[in-house]
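Now produce a polypeptide, keeping tokens residue-aligned:
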Amino acid sequence: MKFNRREFLQTGAAAAAAGAVLPHAAQAADEIVVSQIHDQSGIFDIYGNPMVETFNMAVDEINAAGGLLGKKLKSINYDPQSKMELYGQYAQQSALKDRVSVVHGGITSASREVIRPVLRRYNTLYFYNTLYEGGVCDRNTFCTGTTPAQTVEKLVPYVTKNFGKKVYILAADYNYGQITAKWVTKFVRDNGGEVVETEFFPLDVTNFGPTIQKIQAAKPDAIVSALVGGAHLSFYRQWHAGGMKNEIPIASTTFGGGNEHIVLTEEEGNGIIYACGYFMELDTPDSKAYVARFAKKYGEKHSYLTELPTATYEGMMLWAKAVENAGTTDRMKVIEALEDNLSIDGPSGKVSVDPKTHHVVRTALIAECHNKGFRLLESHENQFPSDTAAFCDLEKNPNDNTHYEIKI
């Protein structure tokens, strides 16, 4: 099912008039309704579309195995079109009209912070399955993507060891980019390096000519990029066109998450280093089986699978296992099941819920872009979200409802 803005406004007005208590009209006795809010259009669709695909695959696989608690899952898919007002509207629709058991959604931190308070207010369980800057502390929310303590902490030493200690940082100008840039700075200094410059760019910026000139003048040993979205692809193209590709190497906390390596030519992308929680080249039985199932469902020319779609798939499977363990879709009982040392063996390896932070312990990988794919360089298992754990303890403070901006 897919809803547009007009349909929401028609039903949302009725929902607002009725308040939070509505009949569960969207849900039959023999089904469990879930929803996703992922961008299928707009500037973040390069991230959202693969997430939609793996969410739907997870739903189909759960149903093919008999469903949950003897009931089939019914999935409602919302496309927020990368518009902040629609994230909130569809979160409210999911909670009030659809009365879903869980919502998976959001890509940027800004979209998450629109969705999260709505679902908390209306007691609807929320999964955020995207790598981000860390710091969310909310018992109603589970974050399955990596945080800087899991990936950036491994990427920066790789950069300073292999390329040199003078680093130039490029980042998107919103929460993720700003805070990730601080983490990169910390880890560069911890490894005896120096940040020669940090620049931030709005998500719609496409002209990087002046920045390339500044980088040439600064002569860093490496660039660390936390650029985000389709517009920022222009940097990699202009960097290659300017003849800089073989002069100064690039490492990234985001490159590949939205199939950037597929969109760029091989010459533009080859050699860029990326750290995240999953690459489809991971040579394990669970990973290979997952990729094969995805290819069977979506065809051989399917989306490339990195962390975002895979964390979405794993997020759905964590929720499903918690429902089975709890024996109910009751929100608090499912939360308690998730907090009870819950883990799955997913495509990325073992994924375990940390009950104190509601983040996950998972593998971090470093890889090099090669011919529109990636060559794995390093694997670091059981990476703990220590950045968020420094501030968040939901066992001691279950009513905490904060997005901490981690001070570095």
